[in-house]
Design brief:
Layout: E1 13-14, E2 31-39, E3 57-58, E4 64-69, E5 74-81, H1 82-93, E6 97-98, E7 104-113, H2 116-124, H3 134-138, H4 154-157, E8 182-183, H5 186-200, E9 241-245, H6 252-266, E10 272-276, E11 292-295, H7 303-314, E12 318-322, E13 331-335, E14 342-348, E15 356-362, E16 365-369, E17 378-384, E18 391-398, E19 403-408, H8 424-432, H9 434-447, E20 463-466, H10 470-481, E21 489-490, E22 496-500, E23 513-517, H11 530-536, E24 545-552, H12 555-558, E25 572-579, E26 596-606, H13 617-631, E27 641-644, E28 648-651, E29 655-667, E30 670-680, H14 690-701, H15 710-731, H16 737-743, E31 750-753, E32 760-766, E33 772-776, E34 780-784, E35 789-792, E36 797-800
Parallel strand pairs: 3-6, 9-10, 9-11, 11-12, 12-19, 20-23, 22-23, 24-25, 31-36
Antiparallel strand pairs: 1-4, 2-5, 2-7, 4-5, 7-8, 13-16, 14-15, 14-17, 17-18, 18-19, 20-24, 21-22, 25-26, 26-30, 27-28, 28-29, 29-30, 31-32, 32-33, 33-34, 35-36
Helix pairs in contact: 1-5, 11-15, 13-15
């Protein structure tokens, strides 16, 4: 059986970690080399997935790939420890083995790698014009290097059997093709037979338990992409690789723009996204190894490349054209220069549902009828809302294997930050259509066979106890000694906290019990800098004791078990990068994507004080503090960030980018108040963020203001809030309202009360207790309570909740 592999070994390609490239890393004597053959699901005329009732074994988790040969079947040479090879064999026979490239494992055969192959490599390696690792990106080879359960580390795997002199060996042959020499080995055959024989009679108890989350990572080499675990089965039965073709465009920024929006739609955990370079279109075997080709270039498509793209369609491939010059069959591209790089309203047709209208930048081209015999295969999905009703998104089919394309002449892939938007009106139109743009793109991707289901919630992470003040940190630890049990546990009805000096990776983190690491020296995060927080926090007591988590349920729950007993000078704050159960006003869910500033702050307010008698004012103070945290920075005074009554942060009066939630508890004569606030700092989607406004301002004014970070703005918000509270306690509402009105969005707004047909009133301000005041002709001024009304700024309505 092994002799069959020897016929065409010149077609094998080496991977970066292969011992054929680095001969000093020969196979460990206790490891087994083997060949795995896999075939596409279509080859067997089925879409077979592992039995969902059994634990799936991911191939790359239990071996290290060394070389591959694309085609049908797709072949890998890999190495594994004896235990891991046995695990692979068990999973293979029980149909639990999952290949990283989405194909179905068909055969596993052990082989022997002879050292003589190394000399042959040096002599017979074919000349290569350019060295490139790009084909490692395009083929679905699982190039991850990860030791499996019971296996050895990569360092242990790569220990040489013998030390030899290999000075003549090249230092880096990544991407080159070589002749490999394999020969059968009697010992390996015996081991294979005995292993498979024992597998046939293995009981369920002997099958090792597998981790729930098996993902593999690809090391980045130069411009290589980050690859994550891929799903095995998709609607087209092809490996879940998405390729982006940009023509001769080499700018990494363009690729990153398109890849970023695709990942937001389909999820990095489901599909791997690569760039297909122009020289690879005719050279590399991408056609059989890709699910979707995205063509995102206005350059003319050469005849040879066009034929390859049509071949991809004829084999059941899917194409998405994004303002590209690619067309075929029943449509042609017609240029309309007056439309180029302009913002227009589009009307998207939807099956069995109302049409969608949105504003997008168009390419300057539209579609018109092509070959009459093919027009029946064309469906118009979207038109410009102009007199001609020009088609700008069309759907075409090709061949009998399920090939289809959706071609678009509107920039679905770009938001307002990615293009040269000329006017503020265009910027606003694009931003207000941003959510719809993402929805339309998702629907297109789903119709092309991709899954746009929401990715799984991120795993909860431990908390870290941090402080910008070492003295206060030590004082808190001293207080903690007398306020936790023998196990370091501080119990609470919402979240119990277990304080530990250090935390290993296996520590259990649940929504009701979270470990808190008290040693600050072990803390590091790419998303939060304690130094930046420290530099921007200028308070007497607020925000001094910080509980930080990369991923938590809700920061509103973390402080519940501490706030009532902690000394007042130890101002508590909880900060998270992401929340899985973020809370909004009225029981709403607060979405918490990466890039938000997410925090809950604890403050105490005496009942018999200006603010204690006007607790609803707190939400206004916090909203104002968020706005001033940005607009009080020199140079940032004119960033269009505003407050909206009662508890929102807005871009102008157009779009919400943050909110405030206040919960208060009265204990004797003191209010204990938890203030949850979240605002978009660096996440342009799904709506808008503060750094979008900074970038917009830089374009308009020719300035070079730097983007801001969440750690900086959280600290500045707490600092401003403490000062606003002090002013309010001293001077009452009149000490704050002039600053509040400076930034609010309601000046001069006319609204209708109670319903769309209700009486007209003018917003005049806020009363002494923080409630909105409106003036009706002939009736004077009335206050509107936030708990009884929902205020819709876009339609200028105040509508009672029922």
């Amino acid at each position: 059986m092994l002799v069959q592999f020897l016929d065409d070994l010149n077609r094998w390609s080496l991977l970066l970690i292969s011992p054929f490239i680095y001969p000093e890393k020969l196979l460990n004597a206790e490891h087994i080399a083997f060949v795995t053959e896999s075939i596409s699901a279509q080859t067997e005329n089925l879409q077979r997935a592992p039995d969902s009732s059994k634990e799936v074994v991911k191939w790359s988790d239990y071996c290290s790939p060394l070389a591959y040969k694309p085609g049908e079947p797709f072949k890998f040479i890999a190495e594994a420890s004896v235990d891991n090879f046995s695990s692979l064999g068990i999973a293979f026979l029980e149909d639990r083995l999952q290949m990283d490239n989405g194909m179905v494992p068909h055969k596993i055969v052990s082989v022997h790698l002879q050292e003589s192959a190394l000399k042959e490599l040096a002599q017979e390696a074919p000349p290569v014009k350019e060295q490139s690792t790009q084909m490692d990106e395009v083929t679905p080879a699982g190039t991850a290097v990860k030791s499996g359960l019971g296996g050895q580390s990569e360092e242990e795997k790569s220990k040489p059997e013998e030390e030899g002199d290999h000075e003549d060996e090249p230092n880096n042959l990544s991407g080159e093709h070589h002749h490999l020499h394999l020969s059968s080995c009697h010992e390996c055959l015996q081991l294979e037979n005995s292993t498979i024989e024992s597998v046939k009679f293995a009981s369920a108890e002997n099958i090792p338990e597998l981790p729930d989350d098996s993902s593999s990572k690809l090391e980045e080499e130069k411009d290589d992409c980050l690859e994550k675990g891929m799903k095995r089965v998709n609607l087209a039965g092809k490996p879940p690789n998405v390729l982006i073709y940009l023509g001769s465009e080499r700018a990494k920024g363009k690729f990153e723009q398109v890849r970023s929006i695709l990942q937001e739609c389909v999820g990095a955990e489901s599909y791997t996204i690569y760039q297909l370079h122009q020289e690879q279109v005719l050279r590399d075997p991408w056609i059989d190894n890709s699910l979707l080709l995205v063509i995102a270039t206005e350059e003319p498509i050469s005849e040879g490349n066009h034929k390859q793209f049509m071949k991809f369609l004829s084999k059941g491939g899917k194409i998405l054209g994004l303002s590209s010059s690619f067309a075929f069959g029943g449509v042609r591209i017609k240029r309309k220069n007056k439309l180029r790089r302009t913002v227009h309203e589009l009307v998207v047709s939807k099956k069995d549902s109302p049409e969608i209208k949105l504003d997008l930048m168009v390419s300057g081209c539209v579609f018109e009828e092509g070959r009459k015999e093919d027009t029946g295969k064309v469906k118009t999905l979207c038109r410009l809302n102009n007199a001609e009703k020009d088609p700008v998104i069309v759907h075409l089919t090709h061949g009998d294997a399920g090939g289809e394309a959706i071609l678009c002449q509107a920039h679905l892939e770009l938001d307002s930050n990615s293009m040269d938007v000329q006017t503020e009106e265009d910027f606003n139109l694009l931003k207000m259509s941003n959510t719809k743009r993402c929805e339309v793109l998702k629907e297109i991707l789903v119709s092309l066979g991709l899954s746009c289901e929401l990715s799984e919630l991120p795993t909860l992470t431990p908390l870290y106890l941090l402080s910008p003040d070492e003295e206060i940190h030590l004082a808190f630890l001293k207080w903690l000694e007398g306020n936790v049990d023998a196990e370091g546990l501080r119990a609470s009805s919402k979240v119990s906290l277990k304080f530990v000096s250090s935390c290993d990776s296996e520590a259990e983190v649940t929504p009701s019990l979270m470990p808190v690491v008290t040693e600050m020296g072990s803390f590091s995060s790419e998303h939060f800098s304690l130094k930046t927080y420290q530099q921007n926090l200028q308070t007497k007591k607020l925000g001094k004791i910080l509980l930080f988590s990369e991923v938590t349920t809700s920061t509103m729950n973390l402080l519940d078990g501490l706030m009532l007993d902690l000394p007042e000078e130890m101002g508590l704050i909880a900060v998270a990068v992401r929340q899985t159960q973020g809370k909004g006003r009225g029981g709403n869910v607060w979405l918490s994507p990466m890039g938000c500033a997410l925090s809950t702050l604890h403050i105490t307010i005496p009942l018999h004080s200006n603010l204690g008698q006007r607790i609803p004012f707190i939400q206004h103070l916090v909203s104002l503090a968020v706005v001033e945290s940005v607009r009080s920075i020199p140079g940032y005074e004119d960033i269009e960030l505003r407050v909206k009554w009662p508890n929102d942060i807005y871009y102008s009066d157009l779009m919400k980018l943050g909110g405030v939630l206040v919960n208060s508890t009265l204990m004797e004569t003191t209010f204990h108040i938890l203030i949850g606030f979240g605002f978009n700092v660096n996440n342009s989607n799904p709506t808008i963020c503060i750094n979008d406004l900074i970038m917009k301002f830089n374009k308009e004014e020719g300035t070079k203001l730097k983007p801001l970070t969440a750690d900086c703005l959280i600290a500045r918000t707490v600092t401003v809030l403490e000062r606003l509270i002090d002013i309010f306690q001293e001077k009452g509402p009149n000490g704050i309202l002039p600053r509040y009105y400076k930034y609010w969005v309601h000046s001069g707004k006319q609204v209708r009360l109670h319903s769309e047909d209700g009486p007209t009133a003018w917003i005049v301000g806020i009363d002494d207790y923080g409630y909105l005041q409106v003036h009706q002709e002939g009736k004077g001024i009335d206050s509107v309570h936030p708990d009884g009304n929902s205020f819709d700024m876009l339609r200028n309505l105040i509508v009672p909740k029922h």
